[in-house]
Amino acid sequence: xxxxxxxxxxxxxxxxxxxxxxxxxxxxxxxxxxxxxxxxxxxxxxxxxxxxxxxxxxxxxxxxxxxxxxxxxxxxxxxxxxxxxxxxxxxxxxxxxxxxxxxxxxxxxxxxxxxxxxxxxxxxxxxxxxxxxxxxxxxxxxxxxxxxxxxxxx
Length: 154
Ligand code: NI
Hints:
By secondary structure, this protein is α+β, with helices and mostly antiparallel strands. A hairpin with a 6-residue loop joins strand 2 and strand 3. It starts with 25 loop residues before the first helix and ends in an 11-residue tail after the last helix. The protein binds nickel (II) ion (NI).
């Protein structure tokens, strides 16, 4: 595996709509593995291929339960909502509240090119929505709420 350079917020590739992967090849798998290593090295919980300069529909997510490598992920259904703080490896030192669906169902191909279906809620659902947004050229700052929620623990 090899660590890749993470593109920052001004990179045009982050604003492109990424291309679907038509064939899962060894290169696809190598790219997903390199993305995984890059994500861990940066201590992130998700990374999308455009963030390493590749405009293809590939994401890696790990919220602490092991890595998920998804090819052509698509959100099939959404339920509920959750507001919480997000950041992005491409936008250092910026954090903000984003309203996301609480539960989603995602279809994709896995690392072996096999169709898979993921039912996610909470943080995993949030991370998946954030990364899938990257594939459509959407960044969390586009959706950031102006005010934090009124509830506070301090
Ligand atoms: Ni991001």
